[in-house]
Structures are given as structure tokens and as C-alpha cells.
Amino acid sequence: MRAYFIALVASFAAPLSSPEGDTMAIEAPSGAVGGACILFTGDILLDRGVRKTIEHHGTDYLFTQEMDSLLKASDVVVGNLECPATKVKAPKQKRFIFRGEPIWLSALKEHGFTHLNMANNHSVDQGRDGLTDTRENIIRAGMTPVGAGKDMSEAAKAVLLTQQPRKVWLIASLRMALENYAYLPHKASVNQEATADIIKRIRQIKQKDPQAVVIVSLHWGAEHTLQPVASQRLEAHRLVNAGADALICHHTHTLQTIEHYQGRDIYYSIGNFIFDQQKPLNSKACMVKVSVTKDNVTTTPIPIEITKCRPRLTR
After folding, report:
1. Number of neighbouring beta carbons within 10 Å of residue 4
2. DSSP secondary-structure letter at 53?
3. Distance in angstroms (rounded) separating the CA atoms of residues 167 and 209
4. How far apart are CA 41 and CA 82, in angstroms?
């Protein structure tokens, strides 16, 4: 068993490379012939500083022409929606409380997003009604919500991203406690399944369809840190051993380690995407291109830097 780590936090000026010296080329997100291209972005906030930016410049301002080209060239684009998007105003008692406007979701759709992950610690900022309304608003905007449902059972279901050239499933889960929010799995929830249950879900998919691809997205880790802790590494390894083909995760608002383990890539945190945090630690991030063919699954990090809430590609 061999594992190695790739540090991405210092600079994006040079090509990303492994300790063995192999260059990881930054490619445009287009799938191979007969394959599929799935693009993952980090955290999307539609409140606070981003709200002010939208109110002043409009939603289209958030997307550069170059970024639009990348998003729209992909077959599937998955973002982590780090706020409820609802007219419901029922703020929970917690430190950071967000709420975006539902109409702004249409801009995400227009700029290429197809799926929005809700399995995070801010989807419940406006209570269960706000959570349910956000999920419905995502559907109305023409996108697919992931990691939330009318109860925990629905929230935990794997979502089919594409069927060509083979089925690709996404499992999203929140791996941390929620502030001032009761764990009531029979009511509207985000997915908080235990690792053992996620492992069972992965194995069930693989047993039914050995050619299926399973991507796991976890919301976890310590904010504003650059490395995962040992327990995260153990959990990630268990998921890969169970059959996960890649882990693409977030929550820390920083770009963390990429680990190559047992032939699979683990992105412990890909950082922000549309966000208002301005410190260099928080403004460097990456998107992840997942290329799926009949025979291979490969991932490629695409470095970005966020300036005034706006993500830009870095060279």
C-alpha cells in the first residue's frame, strides 16, 4: 500500500507535480472521446459580501468568460451551495447565518451548473422549512439537489450524475455536528450518515453494477487549515477500500492536500469558488475535473484564485 501527498497551497505558478516528479497537467475540462467530463467546484455563497457584489454588479459579473467556457464545456457541473436560497426567514441561533435569494439560482444554471450539493452545515441556516424550500428552488431552477431530502433516508441516496459511458454516482454527506439543530432523521434533513452506512451504500452500488463509478463528497475538517487530520485520512481510506473511485470534499475554505491512495485520488478540501473571504489562505482553491471513460477514471485539479468574490483561473 502506497500513499503520497501533493501540496497545493504555496503557489499555482508552477505545474502541479508528485514527489516522484510526474507532472499533473492542467487540462481544459472536456471528456475523452466517448467519455464524460464532470466538473466539481468548491463553496458557493450567495450572501454577505457576495450579496453586495450581486446587488451592485448582477449575477453574471461572478463568471468570467474563461470560467464560463470551462463550466459550459463540461457534461456535469457540481457545486457546493453554502447557504439556503429561500424566501423563508427563520434563522437558527448560530455564529454564521446565511440566506441567498432563490432567483439567483437561475444564474448558476445559466452558467453551467447541473447539480448543487446541500450536505453542508449552512443548508439548515433558515431551519427545516428553509432547507426544504431551497431544495425545491434548486429543482425549479433546472438543477438537481444532492445530499438533502424530506428525511435522512432520502437525503442519503446516491444521485446519478450520468449514465454514459457508464453510470457515475455521487454520495454527499455532512461529517460534522450542526449548531443548535436537532438530529431528527425522520424530518427534513441533510445527509449525516455514518461512515459505515456510506460504505454499505458504496458496496451495494458496486455489487449491483461493478462498472459503476462512485464519487464521495464529504463536508468536513477544521476551517482555515491546510492539512486533514489523521481521523479524516483513516475515514477516506476506508471509503476508497470500499470501492469509492474518488473523494472530492470541502468545508475548510482552504485548499488542502491531495492524496493518491490505492490508485484513487482524495481531495480533502478544494476550497471556495464564489465566496467573499479575502485572505490569501482562503482565496486559493481548485476545481476538479473528473474524466470517465469505459476503462478509466482520472481526476485533474484546475487551480483558481478568488478576487472580490469572483473565481478566476490561475496559470
Report:
1. 11
2. H
3. 9
4. 12
Name 244's Cβ contacts closer than 8 Å, sequence gap at least 6.
Answer: 202, 214, 215, 216, 264
Four-point Cα dihedral 262, 266, 268, 274, nearest 10: 180
∠ CA 178-118-80, nearest 5°, is: 110
User: Tens of pLDDT along 282-314?
Assistant: 999 999 999 999 999 999 999 999 999 999 999
Q: What count of other Cβ atoms lies within 10 Å of the Cβ of residue 129?
A: 14
Task: Name the β-bridge partners of 243.
Answer: none
Reported as type and span, the H/E element at residue 110 is helix 105-110
Total-model pTM: 0.91
Q: Which amino acid is at 312?
A: R
Which residue matches cell numbers 496559470? 315
Grid cell digits, residue 12: 499555482
Supply the DSSP symbol for 46.
-
Alpha-carbon distance of 170 to 205, in angstroms, equals 11
Cβ count near 29 (within 10 Å) = 22
- Distance between terminal CA atoms of the chain? 33
Q: Which residue has the cell 507532472?
A: 23
